[in-house]
Amino acid sequence: MNAAQHLPPHALDEWLAAAAAELGLDPQNVSIGTVLDVARDVAHGVARPAAPLSTFLLGVAVGRAEDPRAALESSARQLTALAAAWEHESD
User: Which residues of 31-70 are buried (b: 16+ CB within 10 A; e: fewer)?
Assistant: First the structure.
């Protein structure tokens, strides 16, 4: 697959499983939809380059948590709220 191609939505589960295994992570702690929603909200509310930065920070926060799944949902809500507030501040 070259850089110009994109994974179809159904292939994301396969990619998650492969990438998580490569990094020694549990894919059950990841919600693809949640991560993509954060990326979308930050890209639209702040700036496109802020999306990968924010999802990286989301991952760091989740990695530090005792309950990764709960931390993913909680941290995602925090970042989405911050992006929404940022959008309003820039008006």
Answer: eeebbeebbebbbebbeeebbeebbeebbebbeeeeebee
Residue-range domain boundaries for the chain: 29-89
d(CA 4, CA 54): 23
- Is residue 72 a contact partner of residue 34, using CB atoms and an 8 Å limit? yes
For 20-39, the pLDDT digits (tens) are 999 999 999 999 999 999 99
Distance CA 91, CA 80 (A): 17
- Least Cα distance to 50 among 38, 67, 60 occurs for 38
How many angstroms separate the CA atoms of 34 and 71, rounded?
11
pLDDT per residue over 74-84, tens digit each? 999 999 999 99
Answer yes or no: is pLDDT of 13 > 60. Answer: yes
